[in-house]
Amino acid sequence: MLKKIINLLNLEETTLASQYWQLRKPFMKKCTQCPHAVAEYGDPFSEALLLLKKPIIEQAMEETLLPTYSFSRWYFNKGELPLHSDRPSCEISVTINICGDKEWKIWMKRKESKAKAMALSILPGEGILYQGMKYDHWRKPYRGRECMQIFLHYVRANGPFNSHFRDKRQSFGVPHGK
Ligand SMILES: [Fe+2]
């Protein structure tokens, strides 16, 4: 499953998210996964989106899901996403474009398949639904000034990873492992 979701956030939600993350940006931690980026795990704003948008993601997947966690990242000039695949808490994921000043493709390649890698790009408010355990994914260095993306992660309610509900935390909106 690899699909674009148009209007995942409406214009007002996209603007709100963009303004919120502009205010948070100076206080965010250096990203441990991506160079030239700052990131936040489980921020309450993005966790609220994780819960709010669950029905749309379920409709796209035609399956009941359980939310695990959200991740929010500002990428800056030369920022990139190294090639990787995801852990079980990210069985079903959506990356949402919040704002950016240059088009930026995410590359996806189905693991253990001879199919070519696919490049997808989205506008602010749009999302890409993907299964990050099954697809290697990456982004090449960003040529714009800055770009903000929010990731929402879920597991199938009846799937093999449903014990990862809430990423095994006590509540939403708290750090990993809490
Ligand atoms: Fe990933």
Structural commentary:
The chain is α+β, with helices and mostly antiparallel strands. It has one domain (2-134). It contains three helices and eleven strands. A seven-stranded antiparallel β-sheet has the order 1-9-6-11-4-3-2. Fe (ii) ion is lined by residues 84, 86, 132, 137.
Distinctive features:
17% helix; 178 residues; four-stranded antiparallel β-sheet; alpha+beta; 3 helices; binds fe (ii) ion
Tell me the β content: 35-45%
Q: How would you classify the helix and strand content by structural class?
A: alpha+beta
Distance separating the two termini:
31 Å
H-E order:
EHEEHHEEEEEEEE
Overall tally of domains: 1
Using DSSP, what is the number of strands? 11
Arithmetic mean pLDDT: 96
- Which percent range fits the helix content? 10-25%
Sheet with the most strands, sense and barrel status: 7 strands, antiparallel
Radius of gyration, in Å, reads: 15 Å
The unique ligands bound to this protein are:
fe (ii) ion
Please tally the helical runs, counting DSSP H or I stretches of 4 or more residues. Answer: 3
Uncertain stretches of 5 or more adjacent residues: none
Strand order of the largest sheet: 1-9-6-11-4-3-2
Shape: globular
Gist?
The protein has 178 residues and is α+β, with helices and mostly antiparallel strands. It has 3 helices and 11 strands, in the order E-H-E-E-H-H-E-E-E-E-E-E-E-E.
List the helices and strands and how they pair.
Blueprint: E1 2-5, H1 11-24, E2 29-30, E3 37-41, H2 44-52, H3 54-61, E4 65-76, E5 81-84, E6 92-100, E7 106-110, E8 118-120, E9 127-130, E10 135-139, E11 146-156
Antiparallel strand pairs: 1-9, 2-3, 3-4, 4-11, 5-10, 6-9, 6-11, 7-8, 7-10
This protein binds fe (ii) ion.
